Amino acid sequence: MPPQSPVPTQQFTATIEILGINPYVRVTAARAKALRAGWRKPMPVRVRINGKPEKAWPINMMPKGDGSFLLYLHALVRKASGTGVGDRVHVEVGFDAGYTAGPAPMPAWFRTALRREPKAGKAFQALPPSRKKELVRYLARLKSEEARERNLATALRVLSGEPGRFMARDWLDGK
User: Fold this and answer.
1) Nearest to 45 by CA among 74, 16, 22
2) Cβ within 8 Å of residue 143, ≥6 positions away
3) Interval 64-115: pLDDT, tens
């Protein structure tokens, strides 16, 4: 069996900018084409900033419509690299050929809780697909029973309409 060819990686320097509340770096059309020619939808990639985190972080680059992409930088990537908005950084980004599309499966304990709390369940269903996916992935990664219980209580509270802070954002009226 011949050796597999390496996944193309783009390395470049960029300044972290912000759009709304989302820090990002722009990936030019030429760099995006080198990663995956003709790609027009969110592109699954793995990213490291200034060589961090140790294991490249999976994320989707978002298309701009002109061939370029915005590479939003997750808080864990920024924390690992010690960077923030306005910083000039070294970016390593490669296409994630192992990416499997679709949301993470909803934890059974969260599904059960949403059934018990109809107001929270209705608010969850009304969330945009990206927010539902973010919430489910966040909850699915929780390891300890204590963390699950604590986060479930907060999720149900904010989804039921109580104002609060959860998952690094302010929630109001279940959104």
Assistant:
1) 74
2) none
3) 999 999 999 999 999 999 999 999 999 999 999 887 666 678 899 999 999 9
pTM flag (> 0.70)? no
Cα pseudo-dihedral 50, 98, 103, 67, rounded to 10: 60
Tokens standing for residue 54: 């140790």
* Homologous superfamily in CATH for domain 9-95: AF2212/PG0164-like (2.40.30.100)
Walk across the sheet containing 43-49 and list its strands.
9-15, 88-95, 43-49, 52-63, 69-72, 22-27, 17-19
**Residue spans per domain, the chain:** 9-95, 108-171
Q: Are 95 and 7 contacting, i.e. CB atoms less than 8 angstroms apart?
A: yes
